[in-house]
Amino acid sequence: MTRDEKGTIIEELAGKFQTIPFFYITEASGMSVAEVNQLRRMCFERGIEYKVVKNTFIKKALETLDTDYTPFNDTVLKGQSAVMFHPENQKAPAQLIKEFRKTNDKLQLKGASIDYSLFIGADQLDTLIALKSKQELIGEIIGLLQSPAKNVISGLQGGGNKIAGILKTLSEREEAA
């Protein structure tokens, strides 16, 4: 591989890291060709890009970013590595890894970056699946902010009906008396 080809791979990878704010680094060593093909098929069906990349290329691409990814150097960028990207869903790769591991435990999560927060180690898989996206958090906050206003409005509307009912009952009593 020429120096220009290596540079192109690093630039392409750096561009993906910049445009997609979440990626997963995995290891699939010891898998047979059929197992790797099954993994790639699952990734394709879910819109996940799966690329086997040299650790040095990943390291150089991460160095071009503003975020500090040096914690990945000691533990994540060792052995065989592959990177998983999904342009929209930050949980999709974690869910795929968990599902794939039900039948094949050779696929390991080494690390992930979600909105520039680092998650290192296979024990972070359940945390990554439970992690809420920015849109989900914004929706929850808006719901919480709207809740008190809705309660006040419904209280005023309900209270108005009660007051009208009480006044009607009192006026009917006066007329009857």
Automatic annotation (TrEMBL):
Spell out where the chain crosses the membrane.
none
The protein's GO terms of the molecular function aspect are: large ribosomal subunit rRNA binding; structural constituent of ribosome
| Sorted UniProt keywords | Ribonucleoprotein, Ribosomal protein, RNA-binding, rRNA-binding
Q: Does the keyword Membrane apply?
A: no
Any Pfam family matching the protein: Ribosomal_L10
Q: Name one GO cellular component term.
A: large ribosomal subunit
GO BP field: translation
Which Gene3D superfamilies does this entry report, sorted A to Z? 3.30.70.1730
Coiled-coil regions listed in the entry: none
Q: Which NCBIfam families does this chain map to?
A: PRK00099.1-1
Oligomeric form and interacting partners: Part of the ribosomal stalk of the 50S ribosomal subunit. The N-terminus interacts with L11 and the large rRNA to form the base of the stalk. The C-terminus forms an elongated spine to which L12 dimers bind in a sequential fashion forming a multimeric L10(L12)X complex.
Q: What does this protein do?
A: Forms part of the ribosomal stalk, playing a central role in the interaction of the ribosome with GTP-bound translation factors.
Family in the record: Belongs to the universal ribosomal protein uL10 family.
Matching entries from PANTHER family are given as:
39S RIBOSOMAL PROTEIN L10, MITOCHONDRIAL
Protein name, entry field = Large ribosomal subunit protein uL10
Organism listed in the record: Fibrisoma limi BUZ 3
